[in-house]
User: Which sequence fits this backbone?
């Protein structure tokens, strides 16, 4: 089969990789219905994270089980499944408490920008739907594999409640789905921080009540203005830079909550500022597996449509264009059809 | 009157300071029943925090109202009162949500190592008992002014619950009262980190079930050993150094909680480590005022005896010896009688 391989900054190739096969008896092989490019794929694509060797790309996926290892019992050939970008056994103490992305046996899933994918720890990682869903639901189900679960975790970590005032830092796909999550959780007011018209539009569609275009100190001042001078109850940090993290912390009221899911790049928090900010801080790689059953139900029942973040759909062999479009911010998120 | 003034590292003097007087109509003047030396007083005494000018010392207090300003309505002359080390109006949005130490009009209380003390924002800051308590309760009531409320906040911020496994980093008075707080909140297991026999003894008396003498990476490894390899549910950071903070974060299980109350000195948190640790982080200057009514009830009803942390009692004019004894760790905490 052919799949996406990153060779270095700006150099993603669609090339022969050899079919994946069962390595461990707990593995499954999926034939993917759809896959996509993640905002986090752009860090190495932009040369910000180093690429030490040619790397098969992609970690978001859903599709039909093609083959399972001898130890797999909970999913079987022919089922439609969705899994997290972190494989987890779903039985260790970290998993049992709902932190499957911190599973004691966690393995990253890789190489999903391809027609076939090997998923380790299939029993713990994959969740099957009853029956094969209709094609129009595929984008929303695919989104549950990472980006929607990550936005949901940001809102959950930020303790969003029905009466909350929420601010979202970052207008990428995760930030936009953070807005959708906050709306789903009943937030009263949702302030999206964005300066791009198409993203502002989608943020409004997902439930944003206010848009703030300023960033940094000016962005913080705007949030304060909109919240009687005290800051938001809950702030979702969906970028991963120092500026975004400080913008999130400083936009939060005393005793409020910051949920951070942007993979940190060079972020350092000064103990003293954090101390006097009096915020709650929680985040990390989203435990997507915890949320999958609930989010699948919401999608299948038509209550949640995160697939709207895919504003570009391409055949898999045009994966290079998918990266370029996202890098240049021409697309929010690109879906790829094998 | 004479009171304690810090001139520089190791140089605390008991000298004439002039009686405090009402400055704002919202002030009260108290005649103190007792005061004490705080662990945080040792930072400038040890020369770690700079002392730019002679500074009246002390911020823990309880006593009898001697005089009130014209705008004070909730306390009156002759009442016994306790207040926080931060004066707060108790009406601003931060106060109303329970973060009085982040009050929009917060003022630090200073110069309490003296017979008389001016307390700003008396209505918001002071809580009166019904009647004047008996002398044997004074140490425990004094402790509520800072050290007990701070230990309580550490446990509260660390989300201690009846079935929690708790670890406490720091065996100063705050750490020991963190142990007492965790016990009072019903924690199942409480691991105190201490290498001093007298402090270990008091930790046990306060409810510690285990003692860990190791520090740093070895301390973390010991906590992991005692918790099936996963770490504690709740960890209280009661020191304020980089080592203590990292020890706390690394001793916490995935999804667990760190409550930090040690005033940070040079602490810097790497975003990446925090991200993958998956802990909840909350802390800061304790909103003692929030807890005062409840903690006063617990002391007056004999259910809480935090006064045990005072293992040295001296007349106020021996304040220099109080600092020396705490600096040399001969005393856990010194109570001073004016």
Assistant:
């Amino acid at each position: 089969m052919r799949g996406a391989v990153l060779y270095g900054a700006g150099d993603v190739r669609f090339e022969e990789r050899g079919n994946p096969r069962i390595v461990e008896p707990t593995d499954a092989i999926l034939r993917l219905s759809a896959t996509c490019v993640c905002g986090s794929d752009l860090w190495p694509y932009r040369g910000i994270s180093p690429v030490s060797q040619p790397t098969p790309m992609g970690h978001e996926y859903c599709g039909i089980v093609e083959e399972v290892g001898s130890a797999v019992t909970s999913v079987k050939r022919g089922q439609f499944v969705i899994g997290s970008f972190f494989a987890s056994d779903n039985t260790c103490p970290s998993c049992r408490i709902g932190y499957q992305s911190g599973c004691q046996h966690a393995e990253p899933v890789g190489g999903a920008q391809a027609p076939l994918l090997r998923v380790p720890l299939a029993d713990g990682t994959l969740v099957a739907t009853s029956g094969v869903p209709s094609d129009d639901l595929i984008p929303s189900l695919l989104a549950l594999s990472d980006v929607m679960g990550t936005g949901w975790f940001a809102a959950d970590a930020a303790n969003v409640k029905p009466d909350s005032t929420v601010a979202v830092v970052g207008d990428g796909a995760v930030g936009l789905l953070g807005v959708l999550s906050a709306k789903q959780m009943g937030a009263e007011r949702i302030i999206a921080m964005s300066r791009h018209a198409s993203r502002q539009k989608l943020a409004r569609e997902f439930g944003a009540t206010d848009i703030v275009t300023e960033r940094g100190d000016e962005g913080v001042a705007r949030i304060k203005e909109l919240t009687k001078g005290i800051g938001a109850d809950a702030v979702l940090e969906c970028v991963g830079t120092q500026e975004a993290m400080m913008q999130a912390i400083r936009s939060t009221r005393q005793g409020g909550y910051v949920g951070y899911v942007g993979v940190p790049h060079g972020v350092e928090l000064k103990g003293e500022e954090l101390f006097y900010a009096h915020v709650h801080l929680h985040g990390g790689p989203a435990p997507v597996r915890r949320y999958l059953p609930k989010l699948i139900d919401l999608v299948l029942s038509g209550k949640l449509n995160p697939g709207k973040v895919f504003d570009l759909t391409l055949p898999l062999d045009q994966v290079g264009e998918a990266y370029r479009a996202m890098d240049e911010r021409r697309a929010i998120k690109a879906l790829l059809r094998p």
Observations:
- The longest strand of chain B covers residues 28-36.
- The longest helix of chain B spans residues 288-300.
- Residues 190 and 208 of chain B are 5 Å apart (CA to CA).
- Chain B touches chain A at residues 93-94, 97-99, 101-102, 104, 228-230, 240, 242, 245, 253-255, 260, 263-272, 274-285 (CB under 8 Å).
